[in-house]
Structures are given as C-alpha cells and as structure tokens.
Amino acid sequence: MSNQLGRRYQCEVCGTMVLCTKAGQGAVQCHDAEMAVQQPRKLPSSD
Predict the structure, then answer these.
(1) CA atoms within 13 A on the CB side of 6
(2) Is the separation of the CB atoms in 2 and 34 below 8 Å?
(3) Whole-number Å distance between alpha carbons of 41 and 23
(4) Which domain holds residue 32?
(5) How far is 46 from 26, CA to CA, in rounded Å?
(6) What gap in Å lies between CA 5 and CA 20, rounded to an integer?
(7) At a CB cut-off of 8 Å and minimum separation 6, what does 40 contact?
(8) Is residue 44, in this structure, part of any structural domain at all?
(9) What is the pLDDT of residue 28?
(10) Distance between CA atoms of residues 34 and 47, nearest Å
C-alpha cells in the first residue's frame, strides 16, 4: 500500500499518530506492523 497524502495513520499498539505530508511507495510502520489509516472525522453541523 502506498502512503496517501493528507491521511493520518495510527499505531494500534502504542497509539502514535502520523500525518502523511508526502505521498510515495511503501507503508508507514510502527512496532514492525503497518499503521492503520484513520477515517475522516465528521464536522459538527452548523445549523
């Protein structure tokens, strides 16, 4: 899996979060395992 620009990755072991600032080949790893891509947070309604 390639790194995706602007995506946040989180380690499931220690909770470290990384923001990808440059896309490229390879995978973001921590504790010898790939870090999970975080889903975008929903913005609160402006109603």
Answers:
(1) 1
(2) no
(3) 21
(4) 8-37
(5) 39
(6) 5
(7) none
(8) no
(9) 87
(10) 39
CB 33 within 8 A of CB 16: no
In a domain, 46, yes or no: no
Q: Which two tokens stand for residue 21?
A: 């600032």
How many structural domains compose the chain?
Answer: 1
pTM: 0.72
Distance set, CA 21 to CA 44, 45, 46 (Å)? 25, 28, 29
Q: Nearest to residue 17, comparing CAs of 35, 3, 39?
A: 35
pLDDT digit string (tens) for 9-34? 999 999 999 998 988 888 889 999 99
Tell me phi and psi for residue 17, to 5 degrees.
-115, 140
